[in-house]
């Protein structure tokens, strides 16, 4: 498999997994991952009132819009980010590790 095809495949799996967690959040009040915790709050209440279908639809539509906007934004910002990333040296990597360790 070519690298571009592999990245597209992994991205599709990631987006599918992120959306898949909303199903259990809405229907069972069990978040599949941390990103689905907020979906438990409103989605499960909608499901208890008999509106599980609209809750799942809203979740699917929101996931599609968010994923599409995120990809478009990444396409626009990819070239400037690469130019900045190529300037990184050991001090910048050390600072990134320190910031990552605190969070």
Description of the structure:
The protein is an all-alpha fold and 103 residues long. Helix content is 83%, strand content 0%. The protein is built from 4 helices and no strands. The mean pLDDT is 92.
Task: Please state the CA-atom Rg, rounded to the nearest Å.
Answer: 18 Å
Tally of alpha and pi helices: 4
**Number of beta-strand segments:** 0
Please tell me what the overall shape is. elongated
Largest sheet: none
CA(first)-CA(last) distance: 36 Å
* DSSP strand content: under 5%
Helical fraction equals over 70%
H and E string: HHHH
Task: Enumerate the spans where pLDDT stays under 50 for 5 or more consecutive residues.
Answer: none
Specify the structural class: mainly alpha
| Average pLDDT level | 92
């Amino acid at each position: 498999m070519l690298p571009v095809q592999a990245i597209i495949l992994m991205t599709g799996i990631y987006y599918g997994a992120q959306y898949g967690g909303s199903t259990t959040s809405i229907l069972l009040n069990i978040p599949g991952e941390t990103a689905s915790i907020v979906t438990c709050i409103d989605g499960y209440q909608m499901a208890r009132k008999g509106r599980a279908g609209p809750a799942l639809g809203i979740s699917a539509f929101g996931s599609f819009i968010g994923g599409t906007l995120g990809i478009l934004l990444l396409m626009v910002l990819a070239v400037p980010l690469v130019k900045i990333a190529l300037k990184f040296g050991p001090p910048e990597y050390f600072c990134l590790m320190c910031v990552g360790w605190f969070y």
